[in-house]
Design goal:
10 strands; 40% helix; binds alpha-D-ribofuranose; binds calcium ion
């Protein structure tokens, strides 16, 4: 068995982040992963709502202690805050308005938690980010040594040979805080970036959704309940019943990179374009790299049936 992955998770718990938490919980229960902490960030919802949702999801999966949940940045570095309530509901979990969690967020910011945990477990942590990158950017500003302390960064974000989903060219996580994203892409740490190019083709449809809904167990019912809103939001875009569980693909590629197909490129973020701010830009030229940035492994595809089957199996296993 490959060595268990030790995750530190930064997210904006909304619905696909919630599915990712359930996937991580299934790995933890199987002894295939450790989850040392979660930080939340503005994005789908405000970070306090995201933190309470994270606690709700972890508790639903039976994780009630040992995973500190820290509230992170309430706004981006250099623009107004925006939420994605149309896609995730006013509560971030599909307007299910679930009971309050038993647990509470810890004191201290998500960025400070990233630095503290990275220093306590040098070289061990996979930093998984599936929301705007404000906490990661702030953590880099807090501690110059951070890139050398993190084993790998895996990010759901960006769009290259694929339309944007929040503007014509920009993907939501990057668009919500372009300055933070560019700081993260400029840092010298090993990185896998999982853009819409890879996540959109993994959309789940009738068979997958019906198999989840048919499984009569508490966590499966919980997952199906919060996914309903997201499925109804996605169906017009997909032109058939379905949903794209973007964030879970990033987590799965962190555990099993062999599932993905990658190109190795330097990535920057457009910060000034009137129409293109927040767009991710890679250097696809075959010329010798002029860019001083560390190239990033950009996922451009994945084994979709394997992803869908493993995610469903994980949700049904809890
Ligand atoms: O663009 C998709 C991303 O934006 C996902 O992480 C989703 O949760 C939202 O945060
Ligand atoms: Ca997210």
């Amino acid at each position: 068995m490959t060595k268990a992955t030790t995750f530190l998770y930064d997210c904006d718990t909304g619905i696909d982040d919630a599915m990712t938490l359930l996937y991580l919980a299934s790995l933890v229960q199987a002894g295939e992963a450790e989850l040392v902490g979660v930080g939340t960030v503005h994005g789908n919802v405000d970070p306090l709502t995201g933190a309470l949702n994270t606690l709700r999801v972890l508790e639903a999966a039976g994780i009630t202690e040992g995973v500190p949940v820290a509230v992170g940045a309430t706004r981006p570095m250099a623009q107004d805050v925006h939420y994605a309530l149309d896609w995730h509901g006013t509560d971030g979990l599909g307007d299910t308005h679930l009971p309050a969690p038993a647990g509470r967020p810890v004191t201290g910011s998500a960025a400070a938690q990233i630095v503290r945990l990275a220093r306590s477990r040098p070289g061990e942590l996979t930093l998984l980010a599936t929301g705007p990158l404000t906490n990661l950017g702030a953590a880099l500003l807090l501690d110059d040594a951070l890139p050398s302390l993190i084993r790998e960064v895996v990010i759901m974000g960006g769009a290259f040979d694929h339309p944007g989903n929040i503007t014509t060219h920009a993907e939501a996580n990057i668009w919500h805080d372009p300055e933070a994203a560019d700081l993260v892409f400029a840092a010298d740490w090993p990185m896998i970036l999982v853009p819409l190019d890879a996540t959109h083709p993994t959309a789940v449809h009738d068979d997958w959704l019906d198999r989840l809904a048919a499984h009569d167990a508490p966590v499966a019912r919980f997952a199906a309940k919060i996914l309903k809103f997201y499925e109804e939001a996605y169906t017009p875009t997909l032109k058939r019943r379905g949903a794209v569980i973007h964030d879970a693909l990033a987590a799965m590629l962190a555990v099993d990179p062999e599932l993905g197909e990658y190109v190795h490129r330097c990535v920057r973020v457009e910060l000034r374009g009137e129409l293109t701010r927040g767009t991710t830009v890679w250097d696809a030229r075959s010329l010798p790299a002029e860019d001083t940035r560390r190239p990033v492994q950009v996922a451009v595809g994945s084994d979709v049936p394997a992803f869908q089957e493993r995610l469903l199996t994980a949700l049904l296993s809890l």
